[in-house]
Design goal:
This protein has 22 helices and two strands. It is mainly α. It has two domains: about 100 residues; about 375 residues, no CATH class. A two-stranded antiparallel sheet has the order 1-2. β1 and β2 form a beta hairpin. α2 packs antiparallel against α3. The longest helix is centred in the last third of the chain and has 30 residues. The termini are far apart.
Length: about 500
C-alpha cells in the first residue's frame, strides 16, 4: 500500500509558474482598472486591485468550480456594470475577464497535470469555428487599427470559455437550481436599485458618476436613456446595476423561468418558497421599473416557453396554475404601484397584448428590411468592433457609424460577416433543438431545470429581432453557459446515462 506521503500530489514548477502568472495578470489588470477610476479614495485605489487579485488567486487554485462560477455570476450581475458607469471607463470591465480567465487558467493547469481523458462536447468544433471567424476579422482591411480590431474580437469571444465550463460543471440538477437561485438574487437586488433609480430625476441619476452622465444624457453616437411622458415630463430609464438601461428588467426576465422551476420542484426546495416569493416580488419590481419593453416581452416569452416544455408533466400543470395566479397578482400589483400599463409615466402601453406584435414589427421594420442589402454589401463584414460595446470607444467619423446594427442579424453581418451569422445561428438553434429534446428527461426536477434553461435561451433568441444579445452582459455569458450545459445533458441522454420517458406514440406501438 502506498504511504500517505507518497500519495500526495506535489505541485511541479509548471503549476507554480502558471499560478504566479495568473496572480501577476490579475494584479496588473486590477491596477489598469484603477487608472480609470476618477475617485481620489485610497480605499478604491489600493483596496480594489488587492481584492480583485485575491479573489482571482482563489479562483485559480479552487477546484470547486460551482463556487467560482457563482462568484462570477454575482460579479457580472451586481458589480460589472456599476463599476463601468461609476468610473466612466470600459477598462473597468477587465475585472470580469480577470475572474473568468483565472478559473480557466486553473482548470487548464489541472487538465494538463491530471492526464485524464477529456470528453469533447459534441459541437465544440462549431465553437472553435466561431472563434476563428471572429479572429480572422482582424485582417479585414476596413478595420481602422489592430487595437480596435482586438477589442472587437474580445466582445464576441470573451465569454466563449463559459461553454466549456458549462459542459464540465453544470452536471447535476442541484447545480442548475443553484444557478437559478443566484439569478433570482441578482434580479432581486437589481429590482431594488431600479426602483430607487426610477424615482430620481435625470440630473440626480447622472450625479452617480461619469458613466451615468453619458448614459442619461447621451454621447456623440448614443442617444440619452430618458423618455418624455405625455405630460412633457422627462423620466430616466433605470440601468439598475448594469451598464445600460433596462438591466434590471433583463435579469428579471432571465430569472423567472428558473424561479418557476424552483417553486414547483418540491422536495428540498419547498422550504424556500417564502424566499422565492420575496425574490419574485423584487424581480417583478425590477421588470416594471426598467422601462424596457423588450425585457417585458422577453419575460413573457420565457415563461410561456417554460410552460410549453413542462405542461406534459404533473408539476408542469402546477406551474401553469401558479403562473396564472402570479400573473394576476403581478398585474394587480403593478397597476396599483405604478399606475398600470397605460400610465403616462411608463412606456408599456404600446406592448399591450393587442399591440405587441404590431409594435415589434414597426419598431424594427427598417432594421429588418436592410438585412438582404447588408448580406450583399458586406458579406465579409464591415469592420469588427465598429458596433456593440467595442464601438463605444471608436472615434467618430467612421463610414460604418450610420449602419444599422439594432438587431442581432444586422449586428452580426456588420461585425463578422455572413459566415459569422451562419455559424452563431447554427450553434444557438442547434442548442435550442437539444433543449427541446431534453423535455423527455424522466427525472422531474432535472426536467424542470433544463426546461427553464432552454426557455430563457429561446426568449433571448426571440429578442434578436429588436436587439443584439451575443456581445452584451448578462445575455452573452448566459448564452454560452447554456450552450455548454445543454450539450452535456443531451449527450448524456443519447448515451443512455439519463433516463428518458418513452414517446407516447412509440410506447403505444410497442409490443408487450
Amino acid at each position: 500500500m502506498a504511504s500517505a506521503a507518497g500519495s500526495r500530489r506535489v505541485s511541479p514548477p509548471l503549476a507554480l509558474g502558471v499560478a504566479a502568472a495568473s496572480i501577476a495578470g490579475a494584479a496588473a489588470a486590477g491596477l489598469l482598472a484603477v487608472l480609470a477610476f476618477r475617485s481620489t479614495s485610497t480605499l478604491i485605489h489600493v483596496g480594489a486591485p488587492a481584492i480583485l487579485a485575491g479573489v482571482a488567486t482563489w479562483m485559480f487554485f479552487s477546484e470547486h468550480y460551482e463556487r467560482t462560477l457563482a462568484v462570477l455570476v454575482l460579479y457580472l450581475g451586481l458589480l460589472d456594470g456599476f463599476l463601468k458607469l461609476k468610473t466612466g471607463s470600459t477598462v473597468a470591465t477587465l475585472g470580469r475577464d480577470v475572474l473568468l480567465y483565472a478559473i480557466v487558467a486553473g482548470a487548464l493547469v489541472r487538465l494538463a497535470l491530471g492526464h485524464r481523458p477529456i470528453r469533447v462536447p459534441r459541437f465544440a468544433l462549431g465553437v472553435v469555428v466561431w472563434v476563428v471567424v471572429c479572429a480572422v476579422q482582424v485582417l479585414n482591411p476596413v478595420v481602422p487599427s489592430i487595437g480596435h480590431a482586438i477589442a472587437g474580437v474580445r466582445q464576441h469571444v470573451e465569454f466563449v470559455p463559459l461553454f466549456f465550463l458549462g459542459y464540465a460543471v453544470m452536471r447535476s440538477e442541484r447545480r442548475l437550481m443553484g444557478l437559478f437561485a443566484l439569478m433570482l438574487v441578482v434580479a432581486g437586488v437589481n429590482g431594488v436599485v431600479s426602483l430607487v433609480q426610477s424615482h430620481l430625476s435625470p440630473a440626480q441619476l447622472a450625479a452617480w458618476g461619469p458613466g451615468y452622465t453619458s448614459d442619461v444624457f447621451g454621447t456623440a453616437g448614443i442617444s440619452g436613456r430618458t423618455f418624455v411622458d405625455t405630460t412633457g415630463l422627462s423620466h430616466v430609464r433605470p440601468p439598475a446595476l448594469g451598464s445600460d438601461f433596462g438591466f434590471g428588467g433583463e435579469v428579471a426576465a432571465m430569472a423567472l423561468p428558473g424561479l418557476l422551476a424552483l417553486a414547483v420542484a418540491g422536495g428540498r426546495y419547498r422550504r424556500r418558497i417564502p424566499l422565492l416569493a420575496a425574490g419574485l416580488v423584487l424581480a417583478v419590481v425590477g421588470l416594471a421599473t426598467s422601462q424596457s419593453r423588450t425585457a417585458v416581452v422577453t419575460a413573457a416569452v420565457a415563461v410561456l416557453c417554460f410552460l410549453l416544455l413542462t405542461v406534459t408533466s404533473r408539476r408542469g400543470l402546477v406551474a401553469v396554475l401558479m403562473t396564472a395566479v402570479l400573473g394576476v397578482a403581478t398585474y394587480a400589483g403593478v397597476t396599483t404601484l405604478f399606475g398600470g400599463v397605460t400610465s403616462a409615466a411608463n412606456r408599456y402601453s404600446s406592448i399591450a397584448p393587442t399591440k405587441v406584435i404590431s409594435t415589434t414589427v414597426n419598431y424594427r421594420a427598417t432594421t429588418l428590411e436592410v438585412i438582404p442589402t447588408y448580406i450583399v454589401d458586406y458579406p465579409l463584414g464591415a469592420g469588427i468592433g465598429e458596433k456593440g460595446p467595442a464601438g463605444a470607444s471608436s472615434v467618430g467619423g467612421s463610414a460604418t457609424n450610420s449602419l444599422d446594427a439594432e438587431s442581432e442579424p444586422t449586428f452580426l453581418i456588420l461585425e463578422v460577416g455572413v459566415p459569422g451569422l451562419i455559424v452563431l445561428c447554427a450553434l444557438v438553434f442547434y442548442a435550442i433543438w437539444m433543449g427541446v429534446g431534453l423535455r423527455m428527461v424522466e427525472d422531474t426536477r432535472l426536467h424542470l431545470a433544463l426546461a427553464a434553461l432552454t426557455a430563457v435561451l429561446v426568449a433571448l433568441t426571440a429578442s434578436w429581432v429588436v436587439g443584439a444579445d451575443t456581445a452584451n452582459s448578462p445575455t452573452s455569458p448566459f448564452i454560452w453557459l447554456a450552450l455548454g450545459t445543454l450539450a452535456y445533458w443531451h449527450s448524456e441522454m443519447r448515451r443512455g446515462r439519463v433516463a428518458s420517458r418513452p414517446r407516447r406514440l412509440r410506447a403505444s406501438l410497442a409490443t408487450r
